[in-house]
Amino acid sequence: MLKQLEWKNLFRGMLMGITELVPGVSSGTLAFILGIYDRLINAISGFFSKEWKAHISFLIPLGIGMVISLKAFSSIINYFLEYHYQPTQFLFLGLIIGILPLLYRESDMRNSFGGKHYLILFIAMIPVILLEFFRMEDAGAILVIENISTFGYIFLSGWLASMAMLLPGISGSLVLVILGTYATATTALEHLNFPIIITFGLGVVVGFIISSKIIKFLLNTFPKGTFASIIGLVIGSTYAVFPGLSSSMLTNIVSTITFIVGFFLVQFIGKKNKGMQM
């Protein structure tokens, strides 16, 4: 059993876990960069069916990698976002913008997109941009589930965040920020608060079941329209990630460097992981 597991997905899962800790960056986007997005959707959708055994070898290492990252890097990401916010955001901005040439080539956008596809692309940008206007300061971490309403709200947060995780361009962590439960999630991971983690986890599972099947249906039925939506979501997410410029020239120079690193890192990974198919 252990030999059959696709252990290369352990590293992929760790990368996806890191991105999901950053509000505004989607692990679905990184799955595209890694060339496993379509297989990820099929595996999650198929895992909750009679053919679940066929997807274990793919999903278990990926899940383990994400869990490791969420635990190991939650405090590190929080540190960089607190003390080196602009360069960190520009690194992720480079990653996001770097995926657009890959999506352009994979979708054969120049030859296959018509007016309706560009309209879909534009419409898909709008909700991601609007989400940013609802971003608010976290009210503080919930440490104890005191009643059913607290349980329900944390469960719902996990549900909505997981649905966003599978959509390139929409960040699950940004959804948690908007709902005011981002600090609750990261604090629970950092201190292994299992009642909170389990409640979030139950919501995540429900969200995965629903969203994976919807996305799979759309990819199979409306591939070009779905691709146009994904490109729009990715473009819209740049607005959420862009932190603005600093009055410090040094900070802006470092941010430019991190942006370039992020952009070309995506190009390198994309070449190593060809085969992103819709």
Automatic annotation (TrEMBL):
Keywords per UniProt: Membrane, Transmembrane, Transmembrane helix
- Pfam families in the record: VCA0040-like
Taxonomy, superkingdom = Bacteria
Positions of transmembrane segments: 15-37, 58-81, 87-104, 116-134, 140-159, 166-185, 191-210, 222-242, 248-269
Protein name, as recorded: DUF368 domain-containing protein
